[in-house]
Design a protein that fits this description.
The chain has 245 residues and is α/β, with parallel strands linked by helices. The protein has a single domain, classed as Spore Coat Polysaccharide Biosynthesis Protein SpsA, Chain A. Helix content is 33%, strand content 21%. Strands 1, 4, 5, 6, 7, 10, 11 and 12 form an eight-stranded mixed β-sheet that branches. It has a two-stranded antiparallel sheet with strand order 2-3. A hairpin with a 2-residue loop joins strand 2 and strand 3. The longest helix is centred in the last third of the chain and has 23 residues. The radius of gyration is 18 Å and the shape is globular. Bound molecules: cytidine-5'-monophosphate (C5P). Cytidine-5'-monophosphate (C5P) binds next to helix 3. The site of cytidine-5'-monophosphate has 18 residues, from helix 3.
């Protein structure tokens, strides 16, 4: 079974306020996009990363020569104007003629660089069990209301127990994802599950993880740096244990 991943990293990161793309922000000495690829690498055979056209070389440099990616094909391509177009461009590469089409495709936001690998495995298993798609979800912690009117009058309260926040990687049967993107190329979906469901696909939920948070605002960086440091010291510990006689 061929499992491929699309890692979307072509956003500008304007909300983060950095002078370079968000996915190149270093956390514990490693770019966010590198964290994102490494955290899903065990689950897939190849990865297509969508990057801003202006920074393709920097993304290629960041992803080159990582021992954990040995034997995996990693390609960096120009993303589109919106996330959906970035994913479509990556699918064009993965489904190009002359190579076997992937059976399963993960779509993962580089901005969620620390997702726990157990979430990825659970989503893949759900698709292998027959779902067209599987997406990680987590409970909503805030009390929610509908947007206020122009005059500032509060909208209706919303029962948060009925809602879930969606993370990535979202995992799909490859053919279902490709068909959904081709059928809804004019939509402007913020995730891929919307497109697969609009095509009649059955998408199931798996439990997400608190480390699947999206690095978006400057205030997300201290948590991201902390998680990166924790993961890095776990890596060092594992390496030491492997070397022990
Ligand atoms: O903007 P948002 O936070 O929803 O972006 C989610 C992910 O999609 C980010 O990792 C971002 O880099 C990526 N993206 C992309 N192409 C775009 C816009 C966003 O790959 N045109």
């Amino acid at each position: 079974m061929r499992i491929a991943a699309v890692v979307t990293a072509a956003g500008s990161g304007s909300r983060l306020g950095a002078e370079f793309p968000k996915a190149l922000v270093p956390l514990a000495g490693r770019e966010l996009v590198v964290w994102a690829v490494l955290r899903i690498a065990d689950a897939c055979d190849e990865v297509v990363v969508t990057a801003p056209t202006s920074h393709l070389a920097e993304f290629e440099d960041a992803l080159r020569g990582l021992p954990a990616l040995d034997g995996k094909r990693i390609r960096v391509i120009s993303g589109g104007a919106e996330r959906q177009q970035s994913v479509s461009a990556a699918l064009d590469v993965l489904f190009a003629e002359g190579q076997p089409a992937p059976d399963v495709v993960l779509v993962h936001d580089a901005a969620r660089g620390f997702q726990d690998p157990s979430v990825t495995r659970a989503a893949i298993a759900a698709v292998q069990d027959g779902a067209d798609g599987a997406i990680p979800v987590v409970p909503v912690v805030d009390t929610l209301v509908e947007s206020p009117s122009c005059a500032g009058t509060l909208g209706q309260s919303v029962d948060r127990d009925q809602l879930r926040a969606v993370q990535t990687p979202q995992v799909f049967a490859g053919a279902a994802l490709r068909a959904a993107h081709l059928a809804h190329a004019d939509a402007s979906a913020t995730d891929d599950a919307q497109l697969v469901r609009a095509s009649g696909g059955r998408v199931v939920a798996v439990a997400g993880h608190e480390w699947g948070f999206k690095v978006t605002l400057p205030s997300d960086l201290p948590l991201a740096e902390h998680v990166a440091q924790v993961l890095l010291s776990a890596e060092s510990q594992n390496a030491l244990e492997r070397q022990a006689p």
